[in-house]
Amino acid sequence: MDAVKAGPSEAEELADLLLEDVDDEVEEAYYLAPPLILTWRKFRKHNLAVISAFVLLILYLLVLFAEFFSPHSPHERYVEYAQAPPQRLRFIDSEGKFHLQPFVYGTEQQMDDKFMRSYPPITDQIYPVRLFVRGAPYKMWNFLRTDVHMFGADPEAPLFLLGTDGDGRDLLSRLIFGTRLSLSIGLLGVALSFLLGIIIGGISGYFGGLTDTIVQRFIEILRAFPSLPLWMALSAALPANWSVVRVYFFITLILSILGWTGMARVVRGKFLAVREEAFVKAARLSGANTAWIIRRHLVPSFMSHIIAVATLSVPGMIIGETTLSFLGVGLRSPAISWGVLLQDAQQVQVIIRLPWMLLPAVMVVVAVLAFNFVGDGLRDAADPYL
User: Fold this and answer.
1) Considering only Cβ atoms within 10 Å of each terminal Cβ, which end of the chain, N or C, has fewer?
2) Distance between CA atoms of 56 and 364, rounded to whole angstroms?
3) What band does 4 get if pLDDT is binned at 50, 70 and 90?
């Protein structure tokens, strides 16, 4: 009987030992996991950052496939629909009948005695909105020729879900194409700032002394200039006859040259903190040169933190481009960016009569908030052991 009674106790002790071994293995696996894996585990617990990352994924899908997602060509003009308000997607018609497929009513321009346009719906003209329709031909990535669009309606009834501008161009299509330029400038600008910041900040923090003093004084001089007037002065100096592509790259270069200083200071601080660590001294004693130590030891040790800082820098680039283009010293028509589109909303009368012309500003706010939330999530996840 004693042996029988002792059995469960021994089994419980054995189970506890096994659980302790499993816990030790799990804990060891956690602390031995690569930094990127640890960062991802903590980042995905940040719900707002994950949702924002999903929003950014959608925006960059629009960047890659702008021609496919746009129902119309961004430059095509429908004069008979100039300043048309956004059309409503409907499922129930005027007679109360439910339609499984969404539709829009036909519309026709009317003028009142004050020459004000209006577009009342024509309820006996129902045009279903379909997926994967054929429309204006285009070349995807400049080599794949097709005419398939994500959605559209009858060619006789152009679809304007976000309305049109004063020239009758579809605002939704122009917003999608504007996303391509505005977001790509943000990424390219931060990439150049990232490169300059790591190189210059790394040199300043690793060598210290006179080198550090000279670099920091130079950064302080650059940061002493007000950013917006300096951006405007450099942008206004660009020749008016330059092509869109050339202006685009020089605007990106201007934003990058003036935006690397914050990144350089972050990198300098990290280098000062880790340059005297044991693993750096061991690499130096083993004969590794300075470039090798910086590239293989110092930079990877805080790369997750640098990526977080870079992500938080993208909104500044987007706002910089939007501001310059809105003021007329950045990108110019026929280029399409959020700032260029906002040029049409500079007058109060336009905002009152055509409030949908402010939608590019909404896109700027959404993108900036999404980048900030993702950057906050990455910054919190940069030290996964906390």
Assistant:
1) N
2) 12
3) very low
